[in-house]
TrEMBL record:
<keyword id="KW-0812">Transmembrane</keyword>
<dbReference type="InterPro" id="IPR043128">
    <property type="entry name" value="Rev_trsase/Diguanyl_cyclase"/>
</dbReference>
<feature type="domain" description="GGDEF">
    <location>
        <begin position="207"/>
        <end position="336"/>
    </location>
</feature>
<feature type="transmembrane region" description="Helical">
    <location>
        <begin position="103"/>
        <end position="122"/>
    </location>
</feature>
<keyword id="KW-1133">Transmembrane helix</keyword>
<protein>
    <submittedName>
        <fullName>EAL domain-containing protein</fullName>
    </submittedName>
</protein>
<dbReference type="InterPro" id="IPR035919">
    <property type="entry name" value="EAL_sf"/>
</dbReference>
<dbReference type="InterPro" id="IPR003660">
    <property type="entry name" value="HAMP_dom"/>
</dbReference>
<feature type="domain" description="HAMP">
    <location>
        <begin position="123"/>
        <end position="176"/>
    </location>
</feature>
<dbReference type="Pfam" id="PF00990">
    <property type="entry name" value="GGDEF"/>
</dbReference>
<keyword id="KW-0472">Membrane</keyword>
<dbReference type="Pfam" id="PF00563">
    <property type="entry name" value="EAL"/>
</dbReference>
<dbReference type="InterPro" id="IPR029787">
    <property type="entry name" value="Nucleotide_cyclase"/>
</dbReference>
<dbReference type="InterPro" id="IPR050706">
    <property type="entry name" value="Cyclic-di-GMP_PDE-like"/>
</dbReference>
<feature type="domain" description="EAL">
    <location>
        <begin position="346"/>
        <end position="599"/>
    </location>
</feature>
<dbReference type="Pfam" id="PF00672">
    <property type="entry name" value="HAMP"/>
</dbReference>
<dbReference type="InterPro" id="IPR001633">
    <property type="entry name" value="EAL_dom"/>
</dbReference>
Amino acid sequence: MAFSLDQVLAEQIKNVTGLDISFVYETNDEEKLAGFSTLPTDEKVRLFNSIGDINDVLEYPIFSNDEKYLSLGVDLGIPTQWGIIHLPYGPWLESYNNTRSQLILIFTGVLALALLFGVALARNMTQPIGRLVEYASQIGRGSSKESIEAPSVSGEFGVLSNTMKVMQESIINREEELTYRASHDQLTGLFNQSAVEHYLSEALPKTTGALVLLNIRQFKQINNMLGFDVGNVLLSKMAERLQQYWKKDALMLARMSADKFLVISNKDIACQDCSDLKRFLHDEFEVEKGSSIRLDISIAVLPFEYATASVNSAMRRLDIVADKAREESELCVFYKEGQDEDHRRRLMIIRDLPIALESNQLFVVYQPKVGGALNDCHEAEALIRWVHPELGFLPPDEFISLLEHAGNIQVLTKWVLNTVLSQLSQWWAQGHEIRVAVNLSAHDLVDEELPETVAKALKTYGLPERALALEVTESAVMKDRVKVIGVLKALQEMGIHLAIDDFGTGQSSLSYLRELPVNEVKIDRAFIQYIDTNKGDEFITKATIELSHSLGFQVTAEGAENAEGVALLNQYHCDKIQGYFFSKPLVAEEFYKWREAFHSR
């Protein structure tokens, strides 16, 4: 079967496929394509001319020069004859553009629907989330449980809302517990010091009522003997009894520390009230089955009229009167005007010591020690004097005891030691071999580095050990007898002259005198001052001199005021005598002049 590759066949194929068809062959003379085509004549000629080599179009589709058609050659199996399919590019491009426009419209519509759906979904999610966020913010701000409610939401958000509600309740319970612990004592359930200070900061100043501080005396010894468990039971029962007594008149009951209880009373307190309270607390406290303890209570009262508007000032005044109540055996102690000033005076003395040492407010005076046998003076006792710029002259007994309690006495001792050795270095350089005694406190004697400190000071000023004497009181020795005796032995082995000051005023002088490594005993002025008129003092002095001499000690009597007393001391062979009969304490220059005049008589 055969058919002609002519124009008719091309038209038929076009009708079937919708594509333009060309049957072409090469002309021998010009090597150009010719044949039948469904293309318009002009388009056919231009297209055949642009194709060029038929082999190219057989392998790949080729655009015409004007890009109207996309042509692809088909090998028909007939030599030198081929078919070419022509795809009009314009309609295809228009179809592509239409399809693209449709897809864009579809995508835009789908995107718009997705956005609308997302917005609706987001609104359904963000509204409950927003309510939950606001609920969490109110919880974070600490709003009360009554002022906020958990949002009513469903689903997973409902679970979250319930969880946050439980969390809010847990936070409120925890805050209430922390608040209670911050303002209450855990053992007794009473208020604590923080709650008291907060209350007073709002209540002061007041004109009626009082602060009543109760202190259990010797409570530390109770803990040591019976144990802390018994002590805790005792404190709890003390708190219960106070709550029974102060049912109506107490604005607040508090435990301030281990053994202190504070009552803030809304009525004025009188001595009779203290008496009634002590009587109520006098009954024994049962701490264990069959075991009871009776407590000794001290009561301190600060009327609100003296409390001032400052909480710190009020508590300080209460502490002042509480310290006094612990030391005294009175029924109760009330704050009186002026006690706060005494407290500030003591604080000023302790505070101003370093400045006083630098600004020469303190100075040393020397009281002569006269030898009884030869009636000469080669020794003196160094005494401290302090003229404060605001407080005036301060008695040594006042500021020395304060410095001992504050722990600053060692600073003063070093200053005195250096001042005395500096003056001695001048006297010894001039050929006057004078020995000066310096008093030591209990804090100095427990310092095991004291012998080394003294040795360095003597070396610094180029003085021998015999130029210095140290005086210690019996009470200082008894503070830590083993350690103090060790320090004294080290000083004595160095060659330092040691003396026991105020001998006879202690309770165990005779029993420990033989153990002390000292060279001298100083009889206290209480036995010397009236020795010429008091036979008891004369007998004690004579016995002390004889006892001390029998133990190998020198004896110094201090406080000789008259010639009759001096005569008796010489009669009993007292080694050295000091007192106002010979001279009052003198500054260094006046002491030197007095000594020269005394020796030239």
